[in-house]
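User: Let's play a game. I give you a shape written as tokens, and you guess the letters that built it. Ready? Here's round one.
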């Protein structure tokens, strides 16, 4: 087996990454990092203006497709289109999601289903379509964006926590099934990251930000690029023996005080 040296061992040159929810926030940070590491990236999401702006900022080796991942029956056509235009997908980043802050007793079955459809069924629909090609080529990566809500109890997010917890089981099962084919499946569990969404939430509830920082051993919020570079590592040859893992990138929150 050839042994790569730095920096080639962290290079994504030749990789083709599909990133859901890639137009803003953590998804865009992952796209930027993977693109910087040499990958071609395709961003998908529902808002074309944000996707187009993101691709303009990235430049060459970047494109986008407007797509709603909860349209499960459209997953095959999406992957077929992207493959025909740019080549086979070698790395899928299941990042798209939705949040619901509501007491468990007030969360309706319809709301619960909507959250699960995005995080679990949408991610599975895309994964099962890209996997045959990865299995045939004997190489591939699937990366899920998990959450602190999948590691410990956070109030008022029962649907989100259930979805992210189900995601952990899906990751471990898929990793076990796919390892013989040299297809790796992993997750990143971000802590509290400084994004537009989090800034809006803190503006509405400033005490929440103080509480979060007080519970974070590094005493600050993370930056989107922290998740982006973690994704590069997981997708790179440097992590070729890493599968079924849940990598917290959280300033120490998951380990306690």
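Assistant: Ready! My guess for every position:
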């Amino acid at each position: 087996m050839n042994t790569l040296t730095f920096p080639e061992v962290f290079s994504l040159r030749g990789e083709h990454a599909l990133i859901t929810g890639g137009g803003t926030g953590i998804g865009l940070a992952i796209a930027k990092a993977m693109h910087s590491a040499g990958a071609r990236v395709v961003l998908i999401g529902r808002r074309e203006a944000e996707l187009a702006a993101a691709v303009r900022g990235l430049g060459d080796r970047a494109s986008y497709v407007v797509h709603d991942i909860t349209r499960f029956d459209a997953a095959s056509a999406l992957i077929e289109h992207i493959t025909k235009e740019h080549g086979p997908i070698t790395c899928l980043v299941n990042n798209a999601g939705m949040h619901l802050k509501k007491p468990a007793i007030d969360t309706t079955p319809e709301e619960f289903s909507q959250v699960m459809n995005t995080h679990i069924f949408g991610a599975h629909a895309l994964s099962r379509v890209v996997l045959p090609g990865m299995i045939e080529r004997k190489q591939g990566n699937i990366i899920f964006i998990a959450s602190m809500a999948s590691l410990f109890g956070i109030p008022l997010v029962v649907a989100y926590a259930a979805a992210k917890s189900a995601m952990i089981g899906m990751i471990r099962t898929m990793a076990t099934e796919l390892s013989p084919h040299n297809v790796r499946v992993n997750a990143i569990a971000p802590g509290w990251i400084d994004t537009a969404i989090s800034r809006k939430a803190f503006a509405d509830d400033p005490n929440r930000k103080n509480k979060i920082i007080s519970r974070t051993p590094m005493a600050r919020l993370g930056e989107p690029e922290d998740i982006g570079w973690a994704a590069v590592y997981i997708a790179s040859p440097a992590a070729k023996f890493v599968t079924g893992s849940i990598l917290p990138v959280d300033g120490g929150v998951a380990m306690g005080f």
